[in-house]
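> forwarded from #structure-qc
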């Protein structure tokens, strides 16, 4: 997990946040939720780049304001960083500090524990994939929206068929016709263009599809290496060869015997046979490092406003599904969610309560609870509310949600209604 401190960036005055397996940031519009999510996501991407080639990539971000320039372009935050902005990010591989627009990057003390992640950012504007004809031609800038669309194109071409019936109150089917490059939505038996489907479908379909792909399907498909990655593999194999030759010489000098072991890299079409000295741990460590540099081990997901255009019932069902997917994958995925929906919070609280008392609930009663599949340990979730540029944790000691300003707002509205009831005849 990582720690982040932000001061005077956008609407953020000063925040200090520790990420958990699931991190929720609650707040009204323009309060800074997305600013926090985008900065953390960007820092994790920088960390990922530095893991591949620390010396070259760290210099690229530190020299000539590279970090600030790329952040401004990628997340459209050109006016957010000012002279007295401050950022501190501590991940498993690097520590990043921004002060007076100057960035320093160093390896963290936990750098050997780093595993190579897929980073998936799902913006609030995700319905752009349905709203804009010929969206594949969108290449305005090198920004997060463009990379989300790359994820969408890859997800739909691999999955092709999606059933939204478990989230919506009616049977909605989606099919991607790869040959014709068309998105078709079936509302019952009626085929519709995706751009003619309801706003709820246009919002939940890319969210549900890209999440499902990023948490599960991406690990099941063969993913060819890019030219850059192939070069990195060649460099790693050259280093391995040197390690092996050293091991051979040491073995011959000591009169010891060599062995051959077959190692397989997930995602490669062919096995790679590497002869090495059985006791030479450095060779194994180097090979494992090369493998982890190019094949995803887990996914870091960022979701802006999952409630967008969804009926409260669908919001709750999405939360239950998402918590289930995060926990039941065989990889240690993480998620950061921004929201201003009370229904997302209430559904999440059901999942937390189920994780807290689930062992005491009878099987018969549990079967009637919609949240059951999403029950999650409160220790795995942290929930913050943001107000006036600062964060406040809104969980009790047991991890369940405390009273927060959404509840208070609801009570304010209800009390006004109750006060008017006295005039009702």
């Amino acid at each position: 997990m990582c720690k982040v401190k932000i001061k005077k960036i956008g609407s953020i005055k000063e925040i200090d946040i520790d990420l958990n397996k699931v991190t929720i940031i609650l707040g009204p519009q323009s309060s800074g939720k997305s600013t926090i999510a985008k900065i953390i996501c960007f820092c994790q991407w920088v960390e990922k780049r530095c893991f591949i080639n620390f010396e070259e990539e760290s210099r690229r971000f530190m020299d000539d304001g590279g970090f600030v320039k790329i952040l401004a372009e990628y997340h459209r935050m050109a006016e957010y960083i000012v002279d007295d902005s401050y950022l501190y990010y501590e991940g498993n591989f690097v520590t990043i500090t921004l002060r007076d627009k100057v960035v320093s990057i160093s390896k963290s003390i936990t750098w050997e524990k780093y595993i190579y992640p897929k980073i998936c950012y799902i913006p609030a504007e995700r319905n752009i994939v349905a709203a804009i004809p010929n969206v594949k031609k969108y290449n305005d800038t090198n920004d997060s929206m463009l990379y989300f669309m790359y994820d969408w194109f890859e997800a739909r071409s691999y999955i092709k068929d999606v059933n939204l019936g478990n989230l919506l109150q009616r049977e909605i089917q989606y099919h991607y016709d790869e040959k014709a490059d068309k998105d078709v939505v079936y509302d019952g038996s009626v085929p519709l263009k995706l751009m003619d489907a309801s706003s709820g479908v246009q919002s939940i379909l890319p969210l549900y599809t890209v999440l499902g792909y990023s948490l599960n399907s991406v690990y099941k498909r063969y993913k060819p290496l890019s030219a850059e990655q192939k070069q990195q593999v060649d460099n790693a194999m050259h280093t391995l060869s040197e390690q092996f030759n050293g091991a051979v010489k040491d073995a011959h000098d000591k009169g010891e015997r060599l062995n051959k072991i077959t190692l397989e890299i997930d995602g490669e079409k062919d096995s790679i046979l590497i002869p090495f000295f059985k006791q030479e741990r450095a060779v194994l460590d180097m090979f494992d490092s090369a493998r982890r540099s190019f094949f995803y081990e887990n996914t870091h997901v960022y979701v802006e406003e999952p409630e967008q255009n969804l009926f409260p019932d669908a919001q709750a069902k999405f939360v239950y599904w998402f918590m289930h997917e995060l926990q039941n994958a065989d990889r240690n995925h993480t998620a950061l969610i921004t929201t201003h929906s009370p229904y997302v919070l209430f559904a999440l609280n059901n999942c937390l309560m189920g994780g807290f008392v689930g062992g005491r609930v009878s099987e018969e009663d549990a079967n009637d609870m919609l949240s059951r599949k999403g029950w999650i340990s409160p220790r795995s979730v942290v929930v913050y509310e943001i107000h006036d540029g600062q964060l406040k944790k809104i969980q009790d000691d047991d991890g369940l949600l405390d009273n927060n300003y959404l509840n208070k707002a609801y009570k304010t509205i209800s009390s006004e209604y109750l006060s008017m009831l006295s005039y009702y005849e």
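QC bot note: Residues 73 and 143 are 6 Å apart (CA to CA). The longest strand covers residues 81-90.
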